[in-house]
Structures are given as structure tokens and as C-alpha cells.
Amino acid sequence: MLYPIDTPTRTTKDLSGIWRFKVDDEKGDFTPDQVLTDSLSLAVPASFNDQVSIDAIRNHVGYFWYQTDFQLPHLIAAERKVLRFGSATHEAWVYLNGQEIGHHKGGFTPFEMDITDIAVAGNNRLTVRLSNMLDHTTLPVGNYSETTDAHGRLVRQVDENFDFYNYAGIHRPVILYTTHKHYIDDIAINPQLNEDFSKAQINIAVKTHQLDQHQVLIELFDEEDQLVASGDLNEALVIENPQLWQPMKAYLYTAKVSLKDGSDILDSYSEPFGIRSVEVKEGKFLINGKPFYFKGFGKHEDTHIHGRGLDNAANVLDIQLMKRIGANSIRTSHYPYSEEMMRLCDREGIVVIDETTGVGIMESFNFDVSILEDGNFNDATFTSLDTTAAHEQVIRELITRDKNHACVVMWSIANEAATYSPGALEYFTPLFELARELDPQKRPLTLIHIMMSNPQTDLVSSLVDVICLNRYYGWYVSHGDLDTAEAQTRGELLAWQEKYPEKPIMYTEYGADTVAGLHSMEAAPFTEEFQEDYYAMNHRVFDEFDNFVGEQLWNFADFATKIGINRVQGNKKGIFTRDRQPKMTVRSISERWNHIPNFDYKA
Length: 603
Ligand code: BDP
Prior knowledge:
By secondary structure, the chain is an alpha/beta fold. It folds into three domains: 169 residues, Galactose-binding domain-like (Jelly Rolls), CATH 2.60.120; 91 residues, Immunoglobulins (Immunoglobulin-like); 316 residues, TIM Barrel (Alpha-Beta Barrel). It contains ten helices and 30 strands. The strands form seven sheets. It has an eight-stranded parallel beta barrel, surrounded by four helices. A six-stranded antiparallel beta sheet has the order 3-2-4-9-6-7, with no helix packed on it. Helix 7 links the parallel strand 26 and strand 27. Helix 2 packs parallel to helix 3, helix 8 packs parallel to helix 9 and helix 9 runs parallel beside helix 10. It binds beta-D-glucopyranuronic acid (BDP).
């Protein structure tokens, strides 16, 4: 799916701004053609939750109405018109001028509707009904229940099966864009480098709605806007001596695709792309043929006031901070991030492990790791949950959306599923096959292992290209005892290495809750001293293993989550606070990472 941009043949209209908003009382007295009265004024895009000061609205589980009016100039009357949501969390029914025009389930991927026949010149009323409910068929997974209050009213509840606040709303831009009635629908770019990187063949597939006489022309431009190759769909497009997209040193070409009728250009679209190779070989993760070492973070889309809504300024600052402390990569834990962030990572050379919403796939998510001790790993996750359809859908939508991004070097199919549970291999095998089939660039695939999934219990690692581990020795296991934690860390890495000597291993999470400003001489848990010691212990062990290819700590910044006895106003495992101030450990991590090269660290 193409990102909405202005081109000589396309116009975009951003519907961001202040919309009308109201909780749906489910009495059925509002119909989407009406003006939403008695409403609150709310910013779009953003989560609704932290914009309101009324607890009953902030915490409401159920349905919500959003509404705005927009004007369409007569000028574009003859154009094809499309309404596109970057995301609406988690399920949306969309109405234009009172008529239902679309429905989408899944809160982190874009969807669009052709409104050519429904939009009118002049005023148009756009109404959206939104649900923030999650259950055992959705991703992320939620535990849904219903009760009645003292007045006999239905009360819905979602107990998140994951550790982040269930923000909802219209989280990403709503854009109206126009095209000619014959148009470019999609572009897939797959650059192939030859062995010595002196040449790149740029394979481009274009999906169009066109007539037989129309032709597609492709022109490739470098960063100085110089034409470097051109041709139609049947011609091989070759770039000699290509500039490679490198981690932290991005180089982006642009593919300009034109749909032509003789000399008339009916539609044109410009897609940035990078040329780089990615390969997993002999225990190494190779980018452009060289062993890459991941340094970075699991993150969240999570900022004050905006909640999970797009915050371009925060994204820019986060990347600036990452660069300053020597990080080179992120994982989009635990859902696809905004297209704006993905484009920024392309531009800034940030390496991305791109994750689906496959989180919470476990009968009940908790932090009780005692099941490790009693050896009873069985649960009924894969018979009691029913997430296959949602999982297939998000894999399709994620890969369709992000397939051209140079920054994406690996897909993460899920985070911390019950991969030790009967049925896990049967559940994941077709999902991995689907992802491999959909990706034109055939990137490596992984899923992220929870602690209970270790070399003895895990059932699915035969599927992955890289073994990715979330580990909390010294925190959830052997809490506060870093000597024992060190031995456990070493012991488990050895066991993985023995079992899969050809597969690279990396940590995709490790961290300790740390309350900024809390200190102690004896480095007690929750203090800044403990966080620093915890990381030093882990890093000592990482450096002993040749096929250990990366460290992405948990988390970049403190973030909002559901309340619980383990949570002090949010998850405090950030090495930055939620407002992006450093905790003490940032200095030592920066010292370490600025000395670890992006390539050949373990050579
Ligand atoms: C892991 C999850 C992550 C949590 C983290 C934690 O992948 O979402 O926030 O642990 O407990 O279970 O901090």
C-alpha cells in the first residue's frame, strides 16, 4: 500500500485537527449522519485517553464516536478520491455523509476507502465509530469480560494480556488523496546486488488500474536528483557502482513511477528506496556482506499527552538521542510503528526489526516465572486462543506496507508467545511460510522468546533465522542477585549456542525497573546504581559469545502500562525517563556503544 504523498498527479488533504468526540452510550439514538452534539473537542491524530480529564471517559471500554466536517473544492470533482487512515485503534467503522464506507480491524496498520462516488463538492461529514476492545481473537490479545453495574448497565472490561497501556483513538493521520481514475496501486522494489557490490539490479513490480494502451515508465534518481536508470517494466534497471544504504549512513534513491497514455502522464508516484543486502550466515547477521552488531532498543510509541498517537517531534528526538549514545537499531515492539517513523529510520540509517501485533499469545500473561522451576510448561494457549486469522492479516498488512523500507532487516512475527506450549510449531509454521512468501526481499524472520522458552522447552526455533531472547536474569529471576544472574545468563547462552551453532543469537529485551533519582550505596533493585550494574553484568557475558550479534535493551524510555504491583506509575525500565531525561546508566551504555563498531565487532 502506498504512503499518501503529493505528486504532480496527486493531491493530499490532511484531515488532522480538532474533531468532535463522544463515548457511545449504546442506546442507539445517534446515527452517523447526524452532527455529534454534546461532544468533546479532541485532537486527531492522538490517543483520546490522555486528552480528557474525566476518568470515566479515559478508562471507558467499548465504543466511541469521532466526527469532523471537511470541504472538497469543485476543482478536484473529476478526480478519484481515497480516504486513508494511517491507523485507528483497534477497530473502526467509517461513515461518509451518513453512509458506511469501510470497516477495519487491527489498530496499527493503514486502511483506505475509495470515496469517489460518495464525497461531494462542498461540505462532507466524516464519522468514525471506534472500539478499543480486545479479546482472544484479536492482536494484541486481551482478556475480555462483561459485568453489570449497580444500575444494571453493561460494563465491559479488557484485561490486557500485555504490558503497555491500551491506548486507543485515531492514532495516525487521516488523509484524503486524489488520483486519476487510472492509477498506480502499489510498487514493490527489490534491489539485488552482485557479488562485489559493483552493480545493483533494481527489480520493480508495479500494480496498476490501467487500460491496455497505457504504459508504465520507471525512472531512478540518486540523492542529487540525477537520473541513473530508466525503462519500462520489461527492462532490467541496473545501477552501476551503487551507493549502499548503510546503518547510520543512509543513502536513498528514488523510484519515480509514471503511468502514461502516450505523452500524457495519468499518474506518477515517487518511492524512496535503499540498496543493501541482508543475510544470515554461519552465526552472523550480515548487512552488505559484513557482520553487523545490533545496539539499541525495544521501544514504544508512547509520549505524554499524545499517548500512542503519532508524535513526529518525539520520534526525531529519540533518534537524535540514539545516535548520541551510539545506538544503531530498534525493534518496533510490539506493533507496527507509524509510516512516518519508518520513513525517518530509512532516512537516518536506523536498522529496524519490524514486529507484528503478535503479542499476548499466551493463556495468561504474567511475570510469574516460577513455572520455570517446577518444569510444568504446558498450557492450552493454542487451543484456547483463536488468533490465527488476525495474525495472518497483520503479517499481510505489515509486509505490504513496509516491504520497500531499507531500514527493515528482519520481520518479528511475534513477541513472547507461548512457544513452549503444545501446538506452537503447528501455529507458527504457516505464519512463517506466509511471511516468507509475501516479502519480495526475503528478509530473515524471527520471533521473540519469553524466558519460559529456553533451549529445553522451546518448540519453534527451527523456524527462525536469528534466536532473539527477552531475558530478565537479575530482575524477574534471581531478583537482585547479579552473581547468580550472571551464571544463569552464561549457562543459557551456552545451551542455545550448542543447540543451534549456525544461528546468531541476540537479546531483544533485558532491563530492570529503575525509578529516576533513586540511589543507594548497596545498589538495591530500583535504584540507578542497580540498573547500571545489571547492564554491566549482561554486557560482560555478551562479549564472551562469538555468535551473539546484538543487544537491544528494554526499554528506551519509561512508558505507560496497566497498573499492577510490579509497576510504579508505568514501566520504569527506560534508560531515559518518559520525558527523555537520562538515567545514570546512559553514560556507561553510551561509553560502551560508542566503542562498539556497527560492523565486525566480534571479528
Ligand atoms: C516482557 C515484554 C515487555 C514487558 C517487559 C517487562 O515483552 O512487553 O514490558 O517484559 O516486563 O515480558 O518490562
